[in-house]
Amino acid sequence: MNKKFAAMAVAGAALCMAAIPVSAEEGNLVIGFAQVGHESDWRTASTKSCQDVFSAENGYDLQFVDCDNDPQVQIEAVRGFIEQDVDYIIIDPIQATGWDQVLTECEDAGIPVIVIDRTIDDSDKYVSWVGSNFKTEGLAAGEWLKAYAEAKGITEINALVIEGSTGASATLGRTEGFKEIADANGWTILDSQNGDFTQVGGQEVMESYCKSYEGQFNVVVCQNDNEAFGAMDAMKAAGVTYGVNGDVILISFDACTAGLEFVKSGDINADFECNPLAAPFVEEVIKQLEAGEEPAKEVYMEEHWFVNEDILASITVEGAEQPLTVVTDEIIEAQY
Ligand code: GZL
Fold first, then answer.
1. Domain ranges of the chain
2. Lower CB density within 10 Å: C or N end of the chain?
3. How far does residue 170's CA lie from ligand 1's centre (Å)?
4. Could you tell me if the CB of 170 is within 6 A of ligand 1?
5. Angle 172-177-181 from CA coordinates, rounded to 5°
């Protein structure tokens, strides 16, 4: 479905942080990618994955737009891709809703949409979604905490949660999954506030928690590593000890390289991976479409549950036994 692509100013994308138009070469597939933003290590890896795969050397012209965590800017970026008449549109949706109108416009323009990472919950007008099951990640964190507390003889759990960006499916799923296990085991979730998936956000929320819940909590759940980095700074400043040898169990999500370094050091007790390297799977979807084949509607990424201590070999999540991986230097070296 190659279309001759004349370089055009992209009105909508001009509003975005970084519209990086590349000169199209005859025969290259033009890919419009509306990325969430640049809020975390995970996001950086996700962006790099797409830029590495959809390169000019590989026969693509990538129109990348960093939407700086602004849902309206993201919608306008997609409209900009429609104006450009790109061949394919990739969206990592900042929020799970508000998509049906612009996806209808993509459908009317005959441009296939592939969603990555976070989900779109109010429309199915896209060809495929490639990502993770966020509720499963939240359930895994809860099941690990249950088994870990039993192994350590901890009978009471009083948790503080630092959530990801409000309305993001990653936030909704991790919150739902962990709360399901908490409710089933009679744990107390003292508070759950938005840290926006950033280190600054994690630090600010944790500073507030250290004041409001001083001496009341023994678990902190950060919904991504960058929030955990900020929370560690705040707890350290408040004289709260955390990690394997601390008073507070620290749980995180993403398992980026820096996060796993803190797991290995014992500062983070457990880190539940969310794989950002979706681009190769997206390219496979595009190749199937180019060949006139029908790709799968959902493609799930493989993920691992990382821990510091080897006191538990596995946990059971949604009835399935899943291994726990003790972090080593080799694992850190190979991580994203
Ligand atoms: C999850 C992804 C989240 C990461 C954060 O798939 O959307 O957004 O967990 C990122 O690090 O900001």
1. 3-132+276-300, 134-274+304-334
2. N
3. 6
4. yes
5. 145
Instruction: Judge: domain 134-274+304-334, CATH 3.40.50.2300.
Output: yes
The chain-wide mean pLDDT, for the chain, equals 93
Q: Closest Cα to atom 3, ligand 1: which residue?
A: 170
DSSP string, 164-227: -STT-HHHHHHHHHHHHHHHHHT-EEEEEEE-TTSHHHHHHHHHHHHHHTTTT-SEEEESSHHH
CA 208 to ligand 1 center in whole angstroms: 23
Report percent pLDDT > 90 for the chain: 92
Q: Kindly report the pTM of this predicted structure.
A: 0.90
Confidence of residue 61 (pLDDT cuts 50, 70, 90): very high
Confidence tier at 25 by pLDDT (50, 70, 90)? low
Task: Give yes or no for residue 227 CB within 6 A of ligand 1.
Answer: no
Q: How many CB atoms lie within 10 A of CB 92?
A: 24
Q: Is the CB of 262 under 6 A from ligand 1?
A: no
The two domains 3-132+276-300 and 134-274+304-334 share their CATH topology (first three levels equal): yes
Give the SS3 label for residue 146.
helix
Q: How many CB atoms neighbour CB 29 within 10 A?
A: 22
Q: Which ligand 1 atom lies nearest to the CA of residue 37?
A: 12
**Cα 215 to ligand 1 centre (Å):** 30
Give CATH superfamily name and number for 3-132+276-300: Response regulator (3.40.50.2300)
- 117-161 pLDDT, tens digit per residue, is 999 999 999 999 999 999 999 999 999 999 999 999 999 999 999
Alpha-carbon span 191 to 292, nearest angstrom: 50
Which of 197, 253, 271 for mutating ligand 1's site (highest number of atoms within 8 Å of CB)? 197
Contact of 229 with 238, CB cutoff 8 Å? no
